[in-house]
Amino acid sequence: MPELPEVETVRRTLEKLVSGKTIESVTVRLPRIVRRPDDPEAFAMLLAGQTIRSIGRRGKFLRFVLDDYVLLSHLRMEGRYGVYPAEEPAENHTHVFFRFTDGLELRYRDVRQFGTMDVFPIGEEWRSEPLHKLGLEPLDESFTVQALRNAIAGRTTKLKPLLLNQEIVAGLGNIYVDEALFAAGLHPERTADSLTRSELNRLHEAIVQTLTDAVNAGGSSIKSYVNGQGEMGMFQQQLNVYGRKGQPCVKCGGPVEKFVLGGRGTHICPACQPVRKRKR
Ligand SMILES: [Zn+2]
Question: Residue ranges of the Formamidopyrimidine-DNA glycosylase catalytic domain (predicted)?
């Protein structure tokens, strides 16, 4: 599932490929992708004639800013965008087509069909589902140590589920929570209220650094997407613990372990991330 860095890479790529283009028509082949308005015909009517002014991101949501509307798009498990000449045959599982006036087409493909699209009049998107409840934006300058402290202070929740909660910090998923906790040297079962001041500082720095590194890694892959114009979205990121069960820890050389926490596969180095229950 794409997390903040992958969505940010898609955002940057889309901005290069489709920003400034005017939508001539929209075709929805799978109505369930479109949530708002709930009629795909109405969705297409709203977007026809609109020019894409910019493309933003909030958490894992892409935010296409048009003349009068904002289109929010969540890729969920396997949603992908690609830009093609309109006459080129569409691949299987292509559900939404944005035909531009210049003959190109932005296509949304989603094998698992979990992705969503919502259209709002500009500005209204912040006041409704799905954006209004989102928590801190970790690559925004507003994401300070103090902001993180305020968001998690006193909570008895374990760090892993806490950081997966989009209403606390937006954009982290299973991969980057494991990576950030490893970078911070914190066990995923530690609770927020057990963190010392310096541990909280480390957690904050680890979240920012882990995501920044991943965004930069994605950025270096953008060029090939732009040249190829094909499907964009995934890139191979160097991961330190996630998916490395049994392999040597990059810090200490001991084996990386995997266990299930809150239903999610969780990767740690038990030596670098000791379970330490601090009495409050
Ligand atoms: Zn280690």
Answer: 2-115
256 and 273 in contact (C-beta within 8 Å)?
A: no
Q: Region 224-237: what's the mean pLDDT?
A: 54
Ligand 1 centroid to residue 188 C-alpha, Å: 14
Question: Which residues place a Cβ less than 5 A from the ion ligand 1?
Answer: 249, 251-252, 269, 271-272
pLDDT band, very low/low/confident/very high, at 280 (cuts 50, 70, 90)? very low
Tell the CATH topology of 4-127: N-terminal domain of MutM-like DNA repair proteins (3.20.190)
Mean pLDDT (whole number) for 3-31: 94
Q: What pLDDT is recorded for position 205?
A: 98
Joined tokens for residue 248: 């040597």
Nearest 10 degrees: Cα torsion 24, 72, 127, 38: 70
To the query of whether residue 197 is one of the catalytic residues in this protein, the response is no
Active site residue 264: yes
Quick one: fold of 145-268? Answer: Helicase, Ruva Protein; domain 3 (1.10.8)
